[in-house]
Structure formats: structure tokens, C-alpha cells
């Protein structure tokens, strides 16, 4: 296991936010309805947490509680050292002063220009007017709007307005940013830009962020993803908090009991992508907090998860078969443990199609396998399967080295695989990176003897 992922045991920061068994109700009497159920959540200084969940699941409600925009009714909610359970208005206001808010719509004052809007956010700070002006100027500079300081909201694009909102939220140097669907009203690219900017600035200021979003494309900025469903937080990691062994047990248990394969196959493409991102995040967290090497339980779970994902990716790309190979450079071969064909396939690096992809790191898209000299028909001859089209793609680590190869056979309806399939795969593989690498390291250790055959 890569050592740098695991911090020294016992490094415990004091959480910035600690929610314990927080529940929330709207309405009174017969109309009283429970919206949040026993929420447990801790966010540490500097941590960037994304909260996902369907509309109506209670995300905004939880954000307003944490943001001291209303007082908590049940459980315990500590934010920036204040207990917000039954908190009075004065205390709520004190907490609000240390929080930066970013909403779906920018909430800028239309009668004020960008500079004045940001200065407004600094009003409660003990600064002289000159200092306030300078701080606002610098904040706008940092979001790339130094030359638009005197523009009014109506003269700016959606993305620019949201950047002003970020400058306004971050200028007072808050300890915590709460953002509620900040990209919802932006196009794809401006959404991405705005979030990258917020991520960058927050990390530089060591400011924690809790960001609610529906936008799967921005999940990658998170240190951790939590998911709210019908007012309940869902996360393996959150569910079992700090006890490492219990956490592992719970993960293994969950994958077995819920039959991850079945669950994943039933998901729609979009939901699968979200699920993948979540599981990957949780693995990453798990890897950070635990020494997992040599754990059979973990390895078996990892294989189940990967097998389910491989099959699901195959289906996503409309392939009849999907096989994942891991590359062992040291011994010069690659092999699959995760295949829907029975048994283990071993190939020498450089030979056969998957072997060539492992060697070159380049995608091979084969329209007719039997016309491709690199294709080895022996596997077909032995299994009775007839390979026609084939898409073979590298999975690379951060250094650009191919450590796994995904092989897809026979696209549905006799169609050819295309560059869209490649892009789609690259996107998903990127999200699986952590799981894949953990598995590749384990699988490599597990296999000692070199292959006796080359395809
Ligand atoms: P999300 O942000 O995940 O879409 P919300 O927190 O806005 O969810 O809402 C959760 C549930 O609470 C919804 O069913 C919503 O209709 C209800 N709700 C939200 N605000 C109020 C309110 N002020 N009074 C009564 N019900 C509310
Ligand atoms: Mg909402």
C-alpha cells in the first residue's frame, strides 16, 4: 500500500462541525413532518465535503442548520465551537459571522457594483474603510475579476456573478464556506471554473467547505462525499466513524449482504457514475485511515466490487463481454482475475491486443478481430465464443504508466466501438482509479509464478 496515503495514527484535528443525532421537523401538530433523521457528521478544518442527494432529501435544511440560519431542534450540533441546539438569535448571528455562504443564485445586490458587493461582506469586520476597499479589491483579483470591479451584476455573465459571490464569501476569511448548488444556474464550463476557483481559494485559506450539488462532474474536488437520502446520511465511513476494524467489517458485510453486483447492475448510467464516485471516495478514505495490506477480507471485497463495476461498465458501453487486466511490469505480463469468462487469462506484455495496449499505453479499437494479426483466436477456439469487435483501453496512474487494461468485446447490434466509448470509459476509469490501484497492488503480490503461456 502506498505509504503517503496513511497519516500517522492519532492525528486528530478538532472538528469544525460536529453533528450528533440531529433531527429536524417542519410544521406543527398533525402537519409536523420529520425531514432529517439522526444526522451524524463531523467536518474537520480544511476539509472539503460534498453532499449529494435527491431533491427534497433535506440538503438545504441541513445546510441552514449548520449555517446557523435556524436553530437545531434535536440532537447536538456544534459549529465553530458553538452549540446550536436551541440556540438564541444572538448566538446564531455570532456563528454566521464566521461563515461564508454561496447560494444557487448569486444573491448580489443589483444596485451595487462588484467591489461594493464584496465590501458589503466585509462590513462586520473590524477594518477601516481603506482596508476594506483593499481587501475587496484583492478578493476580486483572486477570482480573476480585477478589471471588472466597477461592473454591476446586470453587466456580468452568470459565471462572473458567481465568482463575485465567491469573492464576497471568502474575503472575510471565514473558517467555513457553505455552498448550496452553486453551479446549478451555470453552464458546464462556467460551473467547472467556479468550483475549481472556490476549491483553490478554500484550500489556500485552509477553509472548510460543505458543498451541496447535483452536479456529478465536480465531485472530484471533494475530500469526502456524503449522501443524503430521505433525510438520512449514507456513507460506509460515516456510519462506522473511527473504529477501523468495525469499518472494514461493515464494508465487507455491506458488499456481501447487499450483493453489490446486483445493486450496481440495476442502476441507471448516471446513478452508477455517482455511486462509483462515492465508493471510490470511501475507499480512498479507508485507505487513508487503515493499514489494509494482507487483509483477505479486504481483498475479496475489492474483487467483488471491481467485478461488479467491470460488468456494469461493459453494459454501459454496450459490450457483450468485459474483462479487466492488471499489468505486472516486473514480471512482464498481465492477467485478469476480473472477467466474465471463466478462469484467469494470462498474457505477456507486448503480445496479443491487450498485451500491446499494456506495452504502448494506446487504445486499440478493432473493427474485426479475425482480420487483426495481433488477435489470438485460440481463446475463441477453446471457448466457442466468436469475437468480432474489440475495444482495448489502458488505465493509467498519475505518472502515466499503464497499470490496468480494460477489454470490451462485441458491441451490441454489430455496431463498432467509437471514440465516445473511449471517452466514456476514460471518465469512469478516472473515478475508479483508487480502487483499481489498490487492487492492482494486491493482485500483483498475490500472483508469484510467471505465465506458462502467451496469447
Ligand atoms: P433539498 O435541498 O434536498 O432539495 P430541502 O431541505 O429543501 O431539500 O427540503 C426537504 C423537505 O422539507 C422537502 O420535502 C421540503 O418540501 C420540505 N421543506 C423545506 N423547507 C420547508 C419549510 N420551510 N416548511 C415546510 N417544509 C419544508
Ligand atoms: Mg436544496
Q: What is the strand and helix layout of this fold?
A:
Blueprint: E1 17-26, E2 33-43, E3 48-52, H1 59-66, E4 74-79, E5 82-83, H2 89-96, E6 99-102, H3 114-120, H4 129-142, H5 158-170, E7 176-180, H6 188-205, E8 208-212, E9 224-229, E10 232-234, H7 236-240, H8 244-257, H9 260-265, H10 269-289, H11 296-316, E11 319-328, E12 333-339, E13 345-348, H12 352-360, E14 364-366, H13 378-383, E15 390-396, E16 402-411, H14 419-446
Parallel strand pairs: 3-8, 3-9, 6-7, 7-8
Antiparallel strand pairs: 1-2, 1-4, 4-5, 9-10, 11-12, 11-16, 12-13, 14-15, 15-16
The site of adenosine-5'-diphosphate has 11 residues, from helix 1.
Description:
Helix 3 (114-120) packs parallel to helix 5 (158-170) and helix 10 packs parallel to helix 14. It is elongated and about 80 Å long. It is built from 14 helices and 16 strands. The chain has 455 residues and is an alpha+beta fold. It has helices spanning 59-66, 89-96, 114-120, 129-142, 158-170, 188-205, 236-240, 244-257, 260-265, 269-289, 296-316, 352-360, 378-383, 419-446; strands spanning 17-26, 33-43, 48-52, 74-79, 82-83, 99-102, 176-180, 208-212, 224-229, 232-234, 319-328, 333-339, 345-348, 364-366, 390-396, 402-411. Magnesium ion binds at residues 59-60, 180. Magnesium ion (MG) binds at residues 59-60, 180.
Mean pLDDT score: 81
Oligomer: single chain
Rg for CA atoms = 25 Å
Tell me the series of helices and strands, N- to C-terminal. Answer: EEEHEEHEHHHEHEEEHHHHHEEEHEHEEH
Strand tally is 16
> What's the level 1 CATH class of the largest domain?
Alpha Beta
* CATH second-level architecture of the largest domain: 3-Layer(aba) Sandwich
Ligands in the structure?
adenosine-5'-diphosphate, magnesium ion
Number of discrete domains: 2
The termini sit apart by: 30 Å
Amino acid at each position: 500500500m502506498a505509504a503517503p496515503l496513511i497519516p500517522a495514527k492519532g492525528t486528530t484535528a478538532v472538528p469544525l462541525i460536529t453533528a450528533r443525532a440531529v433531527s429536524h421537523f417542519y410544521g406543527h401538530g398533525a402537519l409536523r413532518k420529520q425531514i432529517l433523521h439522526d444526522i451524524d457528521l463531523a467536518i474537520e478544518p480544511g476539509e472539503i465535503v460534498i453532499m449529494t442527494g435527491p431533491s427534497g432529501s433535506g440538503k438545504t435544511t441541513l445546510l441552514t442548520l449548520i449555517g446557523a440560519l435556524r436553530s437545531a431542534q434535536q440532537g447536538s450540533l456544534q459549529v465553530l465551537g458553538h452549540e446550536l441546539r436551541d440556540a438564541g438569535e444572538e448566538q446564531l448571528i455570532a456563528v454566521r459571522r464566521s461563515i461564508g455562504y454561496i447560494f444557487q443564485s448569486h444573491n448580489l445586490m443589483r444596485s451595487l457594483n462588484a467591489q461594493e458587493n464584496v465590501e458589503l461582506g466585509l462590513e462586520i469586520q473590524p477594518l477601516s474603510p481603506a482596508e476594506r476597499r483593499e481587501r475587496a479589491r484583492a478578493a476580486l483579483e483572486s477570482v480573476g475579476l480585477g478589471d471588472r470591479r466597477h461592473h454591476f451584476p446586470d453587466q456580468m455573465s452568470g459565471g462572473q456573478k458567481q465568482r463575485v459571490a465567491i469573492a464576497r464569501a471568502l474575503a472575510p476569511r471565514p473558517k467555513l464556506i457553505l455552498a448550496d448548488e452553486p453551479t446549478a444556474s451555470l453552464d458546464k464550463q462556467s460551473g467547472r471554473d467556479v468550483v475549481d476557483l472556490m476549491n483553490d481559494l478554500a484550500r489556500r485559506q485552509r477553509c472548510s467547505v460543505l458543498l451541496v450539488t447535483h452536479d456529478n462532474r465536480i465531485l472530484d474536488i471533494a475530500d469526502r462525499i456524503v449522501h443524503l437520502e430521505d433525510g438520512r446520511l449514507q456513507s460506509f465511513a460515516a456510519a462506522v466513524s473511527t473504529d477501523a476494524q468495525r469499518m472494514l467489517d461493515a464494508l465487507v458485510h455491506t458488499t456481501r449482504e447487499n450483493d453489490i453486483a446486483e445493486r450496481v447492475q440495476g442502476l441507471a448510467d448516471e446513478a452508477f457514475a455517482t455511486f462509483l464516485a462515492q465508493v471510490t471516495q470511501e475507499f480512498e478514505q479507508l485507505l487513508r485511515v487503515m493499514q489494509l495490506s494482507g487483509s483477505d477480507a479486504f481483498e475479496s471485497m475489492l474483487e467483488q466490487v471491481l467485478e461488479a463495476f467491470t460488468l456494469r461498465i461493459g453494459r454501459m458501453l454496450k459490450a457483450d463481454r468485459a474483462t479487466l487486466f492488471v499489468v505486472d511490469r516486473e514480471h512482464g505480463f498481465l492477467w485478469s482475475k476480473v472477467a466474465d469468462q471463466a478462469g484467469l487469462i494470462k498474457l505477456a506484455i507486448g503480445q496479443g491486443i491487450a498485451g500491446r495496449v499494456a506495452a504502448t499505453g494506446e487504445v486499440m479499437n478493432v473493427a474485426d478481430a479475425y482480420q487483426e494479426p495481433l488477435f489470438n483466436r485460440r481463446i475463441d477456439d477453446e471457448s466457442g465464443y466468436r469475437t468480432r469487435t474489440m475495444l482495448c483501453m489502458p488505465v493509467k496512474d498519475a505518472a502515466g504508466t499503464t497499470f490496468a487494461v480494460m477489454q470490451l468485446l462485441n458491441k451490441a447490434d454489430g455496431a463498432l466501438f467509437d471514440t465516445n466509448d473511449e471517452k466514456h470509459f476514460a471518465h469512469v476509469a478516472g473515478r475508479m482509479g483508487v480502487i483499481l490501484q489498490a487492487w492492482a497492488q494486491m493482485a500483483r503480490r498475490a500472483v508469484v509464478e510467471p505465465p506458462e503461456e502467451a496469447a
